[in-house]
Design brief:
Lipocalin, 10 strands, 10-stranded antiparallel β-sheet, 135 residues, globular, 15% helix, 3 helices, mainly beta
Length: 135
């Protein structure tokens, strides 16, 4: 049975965010700003329904979805695109596939103890973020 990811997680670290954003065609000024942000995550996981809030001082981003059901994700606030998105479990990892203009786009969340890991991919770039559970 997959883990329940419900909780509030504080930012700990990230690697390769600038190259990840460059692969999304984000301009240099916005890339520099995003690389300075320290986002928190709030996850509400109820059965097959999830809400994932990414919280920053600049703006919040909310994903509200049912597991295994494809939906149109509006990523215009992020990079001006829309994707056909499906989120499902692969073992203990929550896996998101985002089909659209960019190949190999998506992410994975998993827990190691009280740390939430996020591995984001687009094209050939990978960005990894780590968050500490606080409640």
């Amino acid at each position: 049975m997959p883990p329940n990811l419900t909780g509030y997680y504080r930012f700990v670290s990230q690697e390769n965010m600038d190259n990840y954003l460059r692969a999304l065609d984000i301009n240099v000024v916005l890339r520099k700003l995003v690389c300075l942000l320290k986002p928190d995550k709030e996850i509400i996981h109820t059965g097959d329904h999830m809400v994932i809030r990414t919280i920053t001082s600049l703006r919040d981003y909310v994903m509200d979805f049912d597991l295994g059901v494809q939906f149109e994700e509006n990523l215009e606030p992020v990079d001006g695109r829309k994707c056909q998105t499906t989120v499902s479990w692969e073992g203990d990892q929550l896996v998101c596939e985002q089909l659209g203009e960019k190949r190999n786009r998506g992410w994975r969340h998993w827990l190691e103890g009280d740390r939430l890991h996020l591995r984001m991919t687009v094209e050939d770039e990978v960005c990894v973020q780590v968050f500490q559970k606080v409640k």
